[in-house]
Amino acid sequence: MTPVLEIENLHTEIDGNGPPTRAVDGISLDIRRGETFALVGESGCGKSMTALSIMRLLPEAGRIASGAVRVNGEDLLALPEAAMRDVRGRRIAMIFQEPATSLNAVMTVGRQIEEVLERHLNLSGGPARTRAISLLDAVGVPDAQRRIGEYPFQLSGGLKQRVMIAMALAAEPEILVADEPTTALDVTIQAQVLDLLKKLQVERGMAILLITHDLGIVAGMAQRVAVMYAGEIVEIASREAFFSRAQHPYSRKLFESLPGAARRGAELAVIPGQVPPLNSAFHGCRFADRCDFVHARCREESPGWTALGGEHKVRCHWVEDKLKGSRADSAPASEGAGAVKANPADALTAAPGGAAILLSVRDLKVHFPIRKGVFKSVVGHVKAVDGVSLEVAAGKTLALVGESGCGKTTVGKAILQLIRPTAGEVVFDRVDLTRLRGEALRKRRREFQIIFQDPYASLNPRMRVEEILSEGMSALGLYAGKASLQRRLNELLDQVGLPQAALARYPHEFSGGQRQRIAIARALAVEPRLIICDEPTSALDVSVQAQILNLLARLQRELGLAYLFITHNIAVVEYLAHEVAVMYLGRIVERGSAGEVLGSPRHPYTQALLSAVPSIEADSGRAVIKLEGELPSPVNPPAGCHFHPRCREARPECRATYPGVSQLSPTRQVACWLYSNKV
Amino acid sequence: MPVMLWTDALIFLLLAVVIGYFYYVSRRAHMLATWMRVTESPSGMAALVVLGAFALVGLLDSLHYRPTLDQGDAQGRPVYSVEVLSVLDALAAPLRQRQERTYSAPFDTRAYARETVEVPGEQGAPGTQRREFPRLQYGGAHLGNEAGRERDIVVSGLQGFALAALLWWGLAGVLAAGMARGTSSGAGEVLQRIWRGETRTPWRAVLIALGVLCAIAGPVLAWCTKYHVLGTDKVGQDVLFLALKSVRTGLVIGTLTTLVLMPLAVVAGVTAGYFRGWVDDVVQYVYTTLNSIPGVLLIAASVLLMQVYIDTHPELFPTAVQRADLRLLFLCIILGLTSWTGLARLLRGEVLKLREFEYVQAAQAFGVGHSRILSRHILPNVMHVVLISLVLDFSGLVLAEAVLSYVGVGVDPSMTSFGTMINAARLEMGREPMVWWSLAAAFVFMFVLVLAANLFADAVRDAFDPRVRVAGK
Amino acid sequence: MLAYIIRRVFYAIPILIGVNLLTFALFFVVNTPEDIARMQLGVKRVTPEAIDKWKAERGYDKPLLLNQRMDGLRAVTETIFFEKSARLFVFDFGNADDGRSIGHEIATRMWPSLALALPVFLVGLLVNVTIALLMAFFRATYLDFWGVVLCVAMMSISGLFYIIGGQYLISKLWNLVPISGYAGGLDGFKFLALPVAVGVIGGVGSGARWYRTFFLEEMGKDYVRTARAKGLTENMVMFRHVLKNAMIPILTGVVVVIPTLFMGSLISESFFGIPGLGSYTIDAIQSQDFAIVRAMVFMGSVLYIAGLLLTDISYTLVDPRIRLE
To answer: Domain C107-318 carries which CATH code?
Structure first.
């Protein structure tokens, strides 16, 4: 088949202070009609710049230095700007990561779609409107007639991304460039949107260039895959070849660093070091400094392509040598993605019953008043947390799972008394924290600490690491005296694996993963027994995430820490949780040991949530349970079971009253009418 | 006998604060890096040179003393004049003392108004009276023949220019030699690099600005002892001298006002944003109320209040200069009290965002007290807002002084300022031909000062504002 | 929405009370009428009789807050506070020192003020937005660079210079329009042309530069990239997308001054001899007529608060995110 899009030796540079950054450094690929081609890589590898280069929509400091981008043989880079505008939206369309900011906030969605029709198809007025409505229908926006006159802020994130897709498809382009199209969406909505893209592709025979960092999405969507590292493509393969026998050491590391049930108790693979700065001159392989199989030639000579049969090729001296047989002896013990040393002592079935309960939350409620009217009277409450009970055992990990807006972060802050709960009790080590005030509460604070999601917002840019780490100790009066403080600081840095020299430096001098280590050390400084981890790895790349997860696991083993792990990432939960609680709209719908909840979910929401997670195990056999609609507003939750409007198994009683808790096993509870008679 | 006026004391306090701040900055790498970005802006550095020249004039004019009178008292103790002079007055004594009787145009040798002069009659015949433009007492008095005036102006101008050029070359040489020290390259090589604009700090812009300053100052210095370079005003004072004296007034208003305004705005804005609740309500109420009163009227009312106070307590002010000085200080305080609201509002918004930052919550999770959170986490992270708004305010205040003095609620009429200069000259607009030099001098001096301040403020903002940095990437 | 506006109106009341108390304190408590009389009469003529006469003429001879010589309600009403401050709330401003009714003066003088201030405001906004849009459209070219340089230079020039320079050049040298004066109706054009032009030019530097940053900020946003990705021309991107979004902060930001346009501009009016409220205020300040100053302070506050209210309403009109919520 002839390729519809060919990229040949594309170089894109971004000017800045000093030498230009070579964001895209000589990549070549081609995409066929009706094919989905995935471009995978971690942040900063140049995959988004590749997409913007294709569209010729680079930021002002960026420019395409050389190369060719051909659509059906026509070189886009040679076109004058006016002709390029006829290509954009008509022959190549693009959707972006953030649907919230990518739509014009003060223009109705209908107008924004009609604009494309006017520009490229000369449709306007009534016909354009009819066409726009049918497009919205096609992308599954319910009630398109009405929605067409609405503004983006009136739509949820998922609907906004559907509108973006409708806009992209309006002029029936041959190629769709999708830059992380679902990264900003929740996992159940992500499943909907990916499904839609697949369906539309089959209907229209479009080629899709899918840019993503998520190997699970690649496994579900792509026919072919290219892995990008430091501005270059290092491996191209068909999906089957890639997922069964990825060859480049970097690709393999990406697989090995993925958390998941299969790796429980084992260390995740990590990639040492960092991506080299792209404005330096490279001699040899760009991955050499981080590679386990590096040898002298890697540092001298940039590797060329090595064909591995079929469409599989890779840029690596080690693979090339291995193929020639000269270095077969140095092949690693582990082949492919699956090899893992499981730790039998920590099987999924291990019940936490033995450990003492450290934290016990009873019927916790956090309601925020809504004020309205002339006198700002309280007209209602946002029931962010509405009766949550959970327990964390000493030295164990409870994962609190849910989608954005379900109230899980508020639970964490309410436990720490950063937000005072409206009702309920938070019993920590036999003391109810909600009753403590002032000094009494302050004294207890050393025992529970928090780690946040964003490593950039969680460290004060004006403080040196030393000041950051000692802040908690001095506030709580620990390690007074210069010598003991210094010893403690050194010990902390050792624990989180940072050099002693870090103390005198400022946060901006560190990478995201290192910053997260500093944040962990800050929490550790006061010797807490419980750490609330609020999405500590969701802002990090997968290889860095692996480092942090390894660190957290090690600290738990060594220090006997208990974690309340707040996350939406199921793979992380599978990897490290002992117990799991699933939250939906302010309440916990199911909790139990990790094996029970993840292995055989009972609540329809848990089932849908787990099935929606993209998996790298191709054809894992489980069918995705499609959830209709989106999370309702916690201001006005549906009557009865909050989940019933989206539930496949909803019954009359679900609409009437919220179900009670059914105890299915000593460790498992479910709040669902399906199980209410089994108590 | 040295005299320390209130504004003098505050100016030197401010100077000490600024020096202290830069010492503090020099020991903190990340703050130093931000300031280094300011020094990388050519327009900002050129503006800094000009501002430096103005500041030098202002500082010289802030060292006051009362000169000793020649005759001591009976016991032989020195007696001090009631007149308070500054070092600038002493340095510019030739300008200050050579007072004509009334207007004269720049470089003119004759007055601007006809006077009746006695022409002595020939050989004892009775003198006649004639209306004519009389020769000036000082301006061009050294000339035997007025016809030689143009030539004399050109010659002494060139002499001054040559001296200035020499000085400029010397400065450039010293700079290059200093930069070459410790490196392998020679001073000549360094000069070439500077000239090609290859240095990190834009020394070329600095040298050009210095060069232009020297090229103007040299000839003016050469002329000013012989002529009235910018003419004289109604009572015959040298306009160049008045313009130089106005610089201090402008600088005082531009800087001391911010000194008053900053603590108020910081305290109000930061506490409102951090504590929210009733503190926020009170602060918002106060600043909405103050904002709702038209600024000029509020200032007018307060200035009248101050005037009443001064009139009823004459005993507090031994000299006219001290009275004018206190009025200037009050004006700064009043301007500060009425204009802190903008900065407070900015800070409140910024702190509202900051307090939700995770590092603030992390500190709260340790039980760190409010005062420590404010001083360690909040304040250092809003200081860039304060700094940007202070440098941006400066030029607005200098311009505002002129308008207020025009309305009659500005500085004391006896104090020289751009506003009083414009105000006095405005009345002569209708004269035919127009007396333009006073106005022109005030406007040009003010324009250069404000332009330099604006350019420098832009450089500071570009370096400190995170939003500008992101947009620039 | 309606409830919101009603609440804002209620919120205005404590602010007006605050303004009132502040002016009362400034004019009667900190500066007693006696002080003012002494200053106005001058040192030479100050006798207790003269002061009493001065006070009686202006109605300042009553107690400040409580008249103990009166009974009942009149103990409160026969005071300076009630007569001079509380009456402002019903827009009863009393008489100026020359005996004329301040309320009447305000009613007649605000129209000339408006005739000058409104064109300055509208033309100025149009000119500033146009220039800013041009600079943003040609961003990072020489046009943009020199435009910004010119703006910085223009905003560094004192407003007084524009007025004096304009009068000298246009009126005196070229004799195009009279130097100063005012006439109602169409005749007013020749008197107003120069002050309006001067007002607009004086504001271009800071205005255009300020709005340019709004446009540039909008142009860096994601939706602009989306619009370009649709294949829209740069004109369409600019006028359909960027302009509309950037006009929201611009419009809602300027709405606050609309009511205060009635107050006129102090400097312009007095230079150009326009009999508006601005020159009225300046004359009052210079002749220390406190009754007028108090009245203008109160008027200014009322109009400013009206401006705040208009700002809130304008947000709901131009921004669908607020209109529909």
So the answer is: 1.10.3720.10
Interchain contact B471–A (C-beta under 8 A): no
For the record, the structure tokens of C140 come out as: 């990072």
Distance CA A406, CA A384 (A): 7
**Buried b or exposed e, range C11-44, using 16+ CB within 10 angstroms:** ebeebbebbbebbbebbbeebebbbbbbbbeeee
**Could you tell me if A656 and A601 lie in one domain?**
yes
Residue B187 structure tokens? 């001073």
Sequence-separated (6 or more) residues with CB below 8 Å from residue C175: none
Instruction: Answer yes or no: do B362 and A475 touch at CB < 8 A.
Output: no
Q: What percent of the residues of chain A are helix, what percent strand, and what percent coil, each to the nearest 5?
A: 40, 25, 40
- A175 interfaces chain C, CB cutoff of 8 Å: no
Burial B318-357 (b: 16+ CB within 10 A, else e): eeebbbbbbbbbbbbbbbbbbbbbbbbbbbbebbeebbeb
B343 Cα distance to chain centroid: 22
The Cβ-side half-sphere exposure at B175, using a 13 Å CA radius, reads 20
CA-derived radius of gyration, chain C: 25
Question: A11 is written with which tokens?
Answer: 């170089």
- Chains near A with 3+ CB pairs less than 8 A apart are B, C
Cα A591 to the center of its chain, rounded Å: 23
CA dist., res. B139 & res. B98, Å (int): 8
Q: C149 near C208, Cβ under 8 Å?
A: no
Sheet-wide strand order for A175-179: A92-95, A175-179, A207-212, A36-40, A224-229, A232-238, A313-315, A305-307
Instruction: Give CA–CA dist A31/A1, Å, rounded.
Output: 10
Helices (H) and strands (E) in chain A, counts: 23, 24
Q: What is the mean pLDDT of each run of 10 residues along chain A (679 residues)?
A: 88 85 91 93 89 91 91 92 93 91 92 93 90 91 89 89 93 93 87 90 92 91 93 92 91 89 84 84 87 88 88 90 65 42 42 72 90 74 89 92 88 92 91 88 90 88 90 88 91 90 87 91 93 90 90 92 92 92 92 90 91 74 72 82 87 87 88 76
Radius of gyration of chain A (CA): 27
Cβ-based neighbours of A164, under 8 Å, separated by 6 or more: A95, A96, A99, A102, A103, A181, C226
Q: Complex ipTM, two decimals?
A: 0.86
Q: Where are the domains of chain B?
A: 2-65+234-472, 146-224
Chain C residue numbers touching B451 (CB-CB < 8 A): 152-153, 156
Task: Give the residue carrying structure tokens 């000013």.
Answer: B224
> Residue A50's domain is classified under what CATH number?
3.40.50.300
Q: Which helix (H) or strand (E) holds C141?
A: none
Q: Closest Cα to residue C123, out of C192, C209, C210?
A: C192
Q: Residue A284 sits in which domain range?
A: 245-324
Same domain for A357 and A424, yes or no, is yes
Chain A 448-467, residues with CB within 8 Å of chain B CB atoms:
448-450, 452-454, 457-463, 467
Domain B2-65+234-472 has CATH 3.90.1150.10: no
Of the candidates B184, B188, B94, the one whose C-alpha atom is nearest the C-alpha of residue B138 is B94
C113-124 burial by CB neighbour count: b if 16+ within 10 A, else e? Answer: bbbbbebbbeeb
SS3 B244: helix
DSSP string for A195-228: HHHHHHHHHHT-EEEEEES-HHHHHHH-SEEEEE
CB-CB neighbours of A516 under 10 Å: 30
Whether chain C has a CB inside 8 Å of the CB on A293: the answer is: no
Over range B158-175, report the average pLDDT: 90
Assigned domain for A341 exists:
no
Q: Indicate the domain borders of chain C.
A: 31-90, 107-318
Average pLDDT in chain B: 85
